[in-house]
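Quick one: Beta-glucosidase from Acholeplasma oculi, C-alpha cells please.
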Amino acid sequence: MSQYMKTIEKKSMSPLDELRDLSKYVAEEGIVLLENKKNVLPIINKHVAVFGRIQFNYYKSGTGSGGLVNVRNVPNFIDTLRQSPNIFVDNTVYELYKEWVMDHPFDAGNGQWASEPWHQKEMELDLSHIKDAAKMNDIGIVIIGRTAGEDKDNYRGEGSYYLTQTEDELIKNVSEHFKKTIVILNVGNAVDLSFMDKYSIDGLIFAWHGGGMGAQALTDIIAGFKSPSGKLPMTLIKDLKDDPSDKNFGHRGEVIYEEDIYVGYRYFETFHKDAVRYPFGYGLTYTKFLIEPKTFDVVDTQIKFSVYVKNIGLELSKEVVQIYLEAPQGLLGKPKRVLAAYEKTKGLAPNEETTLEFEIDLFNLASYDDFGHIYKSSYVLEKGQYNFYIGNSVRHTKKFGKIILKDDLITLKSEELNAPNQPFKRIKPDQSFNVSYEDVPLRTVNYNERIKKETKKPLQTNDLNINLLDVYQKKYSMDQFIGSLSVDELIELTRGEGMSSPKVTAGTAAAFGGVSSKLLKKGVPIACAADGPSGIRMDSGFYASSLPIGILLASTFNLKLVEHLYELLGQEMLAYNVDVILGPGMNIIRHPLNGRNFEYFSEDPLVTGMTAASLVHGLQNAGVTGTLKHLFANNQETDRFNVNAVVSERAQREIYLKGFEIAIRSAKAKAIMTSYNPVNGLWTASNYDINKKLVHDEWGFKGIIVTDWWAKMNDWEGPGDVKNTKAMIISQNDLYMVITDAESNSNNDNAKASYHEGSLSLSHLQLTAKNILKFLLTTPAFHRMHQLTFKKEVLRYQPFFRTNQTSLHIPYLKQFEINGEQIKVKPYLQQIELQDIESIESMKAKSDSIELHPDFKHAVIKKIEKGETYLLHVLVGEKTDHSNDLVDLNSIDFKMALPVGESAWNPIILKLNESVQLSEGIDVNSDRIQVNQQNSTISYVLEFVNSGKYLLDFMVSSEQSPLAQLPFSIYLNNTYQTTLTINGSEGHKKSSRASILVEPGKHVLTLKFNRSSINIHEFKVMRHG
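--- reply ---
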C-alpha cells in the first residue's frame, strides 16, 4: 500500500478525506452478524420500515477523551439506507420519526464532563403505525443505541445494560407483526440480549460505533455490497451475575480480582459453558466456509500449522481461522482454552480456497508460576499433553495437533514483581473442573530496599554549552548533554503542560519537552500529544477524522488493515503537528459494565496485544507514535483515581500486562501511559516494580512513560498524592501530565525538595531525562524545530506469532465516466460528491457492478480485486452542496462568541453588524442585512450554553412580489441544518422562524442566501423550553 501513501496530499491543519473513507472500509470488517435466520440479510430489492430514534442519531463513538473528535458531519443511518439503490424505505414511518426527533432533540447532557446519558429517549409508537407498516413492508428493522465513556461506568439498569421498557415493547411489537425482524445494536459495549429469548428475531447485528462513516458502513453490509466478517472479541453471556468478576466490580476503595486468570472465555469454557449466549470469536458471514487443518509440525520450539479454507457458499466473504490451546492442568491449573494465534483470510469467492500457515513459539504459551510449584517467579511449561483446536470461534473447533512434554520446562526466569501484600483467595479448577479456591502468594521482597540497592551512580556533570542538535549530529553524546543540564532543567523535563497549551496545536492534550525557556534554548523541542485513539481530539474546534472504536477494530481480526488505518492517522497527525496520540486503549474487558470498554479491544490479551501492536506499527510507519494505555488493571471507571486493584502476580503477567508486553516486544512501542489506580497498594504512576523492573528491564522498553492526566502517586504504604512526582521519577515514569506551567512548578510538586533532602537522587532524574530526550530526537517536533528533513525511525516489527498473510491490498477505481464526463478518483476515497451534476443520466466504469438509485442522485460502483471489495458512492445534486465549507473555522476567533440559551424562552438579539465573516454581495449595518447577490453568506459565533432545540426568529422583507420564493439555508460549523423559504413582501416586514438542534459549545452559525433581494431586520436566538 506504500504506493498509495505517496499520493496523499496533506493540508496543514486539515483532516484527510482518505482517512475518513478508509475508516468506513475498516468499520465494514468489524461489524458482527450474530443471527441471520431465513437469510433475512442481505436486504436486496425489499421494502423495509425502520424503527428507533437512533436511525437519526447514530453514535459514532463513546464519550470522554476517547470519543470527542470534531467532525464536519456524521451521516445518520436512515439517510444512508434511503440512498441505497436496492432498499426501499417506508416513508410514512420515516416521517413519523423525523418529526418526533425534531421535537425531542438529542440529549447530549448539560455540557459538563461525563454528563451525557447512556441512552436517548425513545418514541412510544402507537401500535397502529406498526401494523400499517407491516402490511406494506417485507422487513422491520429496529435500531437501538447506547453510549458510555470516561469517568462513569455503565449501570445495571434500563437505559444502559438493559433495554428500556419502551425499547423492549418496540422490539416486541415489530417482531410480532412483521414477517421478518432485524435488530441492530449501535453500541460500544455488551448489552442484555434476553429479548432474543422472548421474541422472534431473524437478524441480529452488533454494529458497534463505526466512527464518522460508520452508518454508511452499516448500510453497505445490510444492502449486501459487502459481507460481514467481524468476530466477537469478547463473550456475550445470558446473565450478568454469571460473570466471574461480577461480585467484584464497581466497588469503591478496593476490588479483589478473585477470578484471577479466568477472564471471559477462559472462565466460561472451563467452568460454565451454559452461561454463554454467543461465544468468543463468533460471527456469521453471508456465506459458509469449510475449515480443514492440514499439517502440524514442531521444529525446535516453533509449532507450525497449515489450515485449508474454502468458501462453500454463494457470496464472497472472509473467514477468521483461530487456533486454541488446551494445556495440561498440572500443579498450576489452566483454562481449558487459550487463544494461541489467529488470521483472517482474504476475501474468497464461492468455491475459492486458500491455505493459511501459522508459526507459534511454544515458549509464548507458558504459564507464570507465582507459587513456586515448578520454579517461583518464572514462566513454565508443565509436563503433559498440549492439545490444539482449530476453527472459527472458541466453540466451533476441531482438535488437531498435540505436543507431549515429558518434563517441566522453565522458559524464562524472572523475579517477584508487584505481588499482592494482603491475603485473598483466587479460583482454580479442581479435578472435575469445578471452581475451587487457593490462597494467593504474597509479597516477600522489600520494596524500598530494592530501590535503594538498584539506584545507580549519576552521570558526570559538566559546564559544556551543548545543544540537543549537537547530540543529533553526534558532536556530543547524550550522556554529555544530560550532564550539562541543571537540576531545575532535569525536573522541568518531567512536567508536561496542558490541557490546550498554546505552545502546541490548539486544543490538544499536552505539550512536553522544551516547555521552559532554558530547555528551548538548549534545542529541546516542544512535542505535542493529543487525545485518541479514535481520531485526534482538539478542543479548539479543529476538525479531524473520526475512526471506529477499539472494540470494533479488534472485531475485524484483521491486523494488517488496522495497521494501515493508523498509518493514515499518522499522516493526519503530521498535518496537525501532533507527535503522539494518546492511544491505543488496551485494558482488558474484564466486566461488561466498564464504561470505557468501547475504547478497549478484547477480554483476551493476545487479541489486545496484537491489535495494539498493529496500530502502533502503523503510526510509527508514518513517523509518529501512539501511547499504550492504561498500565494497568484499570478495569472500571467508578472511583478510578483511588480504587485499589488487588491482583495476583500470575493474573498480572498472563492477563492484564500481557497485551502491553506483546505490543512492546512486537511493535517496539515508544510511549506508555500509566493508569489512575493503585494495584496492590502502589499507584501505577509510581510503581517501581512495574515501570522500571518489568517494563524497562525485562521487556526491554526504550521509550517514555507518562502519567494519566492529574494522576496520583505514592511511596510504599503512603497515600496517593498528585504532588509526589519524586515517587514517579524514581519508578522511571518520566512525565507528569499535566500542569499549567513547568518552569514555575505550578503544581507545587515535591521533586526539587526531595532532591535537596536526599530522597531523590540525581541519577533518577538523569534516567528520566535520557528516556525523554532520546524519544524527542525521533519526533517530527525535533525536526521542525531544527529545520531538518524529517527521517522517521525504522523499527523492525516482530509479531508474537507468524502467518503467511503478509500484505494488504485495497483496490480503488482510478476513474469513471458520468454523463459523458471523466472523473478521476484518488486512492482510498470511497465517496465522491458532484454538486455541479443534477442527476445521473449515464455511468460507465471498469468495475464489477454499478447500482443506481431510482432518484438518479446516488450510485454505488463495486469493484472486486484480489479478494477485496471496493465501493465508491457517487452522489450528485444540490443537496451535496451542504457539505461545502462556507467558513474557515480555523481562522475564527471563538472568544467573540455570544452566549445564548442559558435559560429557556429568553431571546437573545444578535447585533447584525457583528458578524465574524461576510462574503461579497451583502451590505450590513446595525439595522439591516441586505442581500444583493445569490449564494452570499454571513456568519456569527455563538456559545450555546445548553443542548436542545433552538428557535431562530427573523424579521425579514423583500421588494419582490408575494409569488417570489426566496430560500436561505442555515449551517452550523459548515454542516447544513435547515432551509427557510420566505415569499416576497413588496417591502413589508414580516416574521419567519426556523429551528435547529444544537449541542453545547461554541459554534459558527452561517446564513447562506440561495437568492438575492432579501433583507433581514432582526435576528433572535432562543432556546426552546
